[in-house]
Write a structure and sequence with these properties.
alpha/beta; Elongation Factor Tu (Ef-tu), domain 3; Rossmann fold; six-stranded antiparallel sheet; 13 strands; globular
């Protein structure tokens, strides 16, 4: 197949149904992007996701893993699912009401190379887009990683790594907009402080909402909390201490924990094929730690709804 300008134009006109409305490059490998669909944007709940797509013929960012495609692959659409994020504020003080927006916000890291040899197909293309450029967005917004089980007085703890913070920001905005009464703790663990894309927003939120506390954690440089992983935050007692500061306790009876990000951090139990028993993965993840403290993870296979909710981010 010979790829001609006419074929590229035809593909874009037929398959692309959204426009880049806003693009903020936080650093070379991290950005916040807002996408406006051509169709009426569906309503959604905080924590849900949809797909974004670009054709294989689109250019790729420099410095990424080499990709070799066959000619017949060029006119194929590459799709990836991303949780919808939120900057929470409509301006510097007023909370954003997503139902009044006609766009979707995403918080995305550039994957330059995969250690398992699979070539990153989507983000190297996404990071070349500018405001006004076109792409594909899925018309369906879906996902069960939502606040449906949370009651108005419950404590809510968000624990994420990297851009796994995205759905937590969306859920946080929903809680604050509906004037949630319980305490909210939001911890995000990254390598460096520059990878905390919403840090200034989080600081403003803490000043405005006394029931909210944000805990930025880094693993390769010191912030106020020192070098720390999510698991350390729990096992050291610091997470419980932050709740106690506001008169609460890390009590499974009144607390919901939401996990999103690195699967090693989450540690989703699996059913061992040989023993037919449920096992925790190694290294120790947050689910194993919390279940040892009396919490219970959701298990869709067993139709169990607990107070630990997680998203399989990759």
């Amino acid at each position: 197949m010979i790829l001609t300008p006419d074929k590229i134009t035809e593909f874009r006109e037929k398959r692309y149904n959204a426009t880049v409305l806003h693009r903020e490059l936080l650093h070379s490998d991290l950005m916040v992007i807002r996408i406006k669909p051509d169709f009426p944007r569906p309503n959604y709940e905080g924590g849900q996701y949809c797909t974004l797509g670009l054709a294989n013929f689109e250019p790729r960012a420099a410095g990424c893993q080499h990709e070799h495609l066959q000619p017949d692959d060029l006119l194929k659409l590459v799709r990836r699912s991303y949780s919808i994020s939120s900057s929470v504020y409509a301006d510097g003080h007023t909370l954003r009401n997503p139902s009044q927006d006609d766009w979707l916000e995403f918080y995305i890291v550039l994957v330059r190379e995969n250690l398992d040899g699979r070539v990153p197909a989507f983000t190297p293309r996404l990071f070349t887009l500018e405001v006004g450029d076109r792409l594909n967005v899925g018309e369906k917004i879906a996902g069960h990683f939502t606040l449906h089980a949370v009651k108005p007085e419950d404590q809510v703890v968000f624990l994420g790594t990297g851009t796994g913070e995205a759905p937590h920001n969306s859920m946080l905005g929903e809680l604050l907009l509906r004037e949630h009464k319980g305490m909210i703790i939001n911890a995000c663990c990254v390598r460096y402080a520059k990878d905390l894309g919403y840090l200034e927003t989080q600081y403003r939120l803490m000043k405005q909402f006394p029931q909210y506390k944000y805990l930025p954690l880094t693993t390769r440089e010191n912030l106020s909390e020192g070098k720390m992983y999510i698991q350390d935050l729990i096992t050291s007692g610091e997470l419980a201490g932050h709740l106690a500061e506001r008169g609460g306790s890390f009590d499974p009876a009144s607390t919901h924990v939401f996990l999103c990000g690195n699967p090693k951090m989450i540690g989703i139990p699996f059913k061992d094929k040989e023993t037919a028993t449920w096992q925790y993965p190694s290294p120790t993840g947050v689910i194993e730690i919390l279940e040892g403290m009396g919490f219970k993870a959701d298990n869709p296979q067993l139709k169990v709804e607990g107070n630990i909710h997680f998203e399989k981010y990759w």
